[in-house]
Amino acid sequence: MAKFTKRTVVVAGVTALALSGGAAWAAITGWNINGTGEANGKAAEIKELTASTTFSDSLFPGAKSPLVTNMTNPNEFPVKLTGQIQVDNATVTPENNDCKTALLQAGMFNTTFPGTPEIGAGLTKSVPGNVTIGNIPQACASKTIKIDYSFKAESLPES
Question: What is the pTM of this model?
């Protein structure tokens, strides 16, 4: 039988303790196992906002008029308005082409909203604003004016 020195016995004991401790640790904590999965969903549909505006005062060159706009957000997420109104078309009654042409000129209606109004999901909100009328021609005097316009908004995260 081989003769073991004190040093050999200590090294062997420490090694056995380390190995048995490692095996005990593995038995207690278990093995690391990875997994995979998948998620399915559908992105929300984007629906156009709608708005209806009423000028509070009569229109004339340089007029500054408050206005109230009722904006409807049919989306399932809130939105905020991000810019000025863009005039897309004008209807003048009784018809007058000089008036209509002038109303479509850039800068004829300078419309602003205070801050960046937010409209909740599925809600209609009254949004106050102001409009400054440009150099509206005399051909528009006593006419009924209907403006078709567009505006921009962006989605907001739910709060």
Answer: 0.72
Residue with tokens 């005399």: 138
Say how many C-beta atoms besides its own lie within 10 A of residue 70's C-beta.
Answer: 13
Which single residue is written with the structure tokens 């009654």? 93
Give the closest residue to 120 by CA, choosing from 69, 81, 67.
81
Architecture of domain 50-154: Sandwich (2.60)
| pLDDT tens-digit readout, 4-45 | 666 665 666 666 655 565 555 555 778 999 999 999 999 999
**Cis bond before residue 137 (omega within 30° of 0):** no
CA distance 3 to 80: 87
Distance CA 84, CA 77 (A): 22
Q: Per-domain residue ranges for the chain?
A: 50-154
Q: Tell the burial category of 120 from Cβ atoms under 10 Å away from its Cβ (0-12, 13-18, 19+).
A: middle
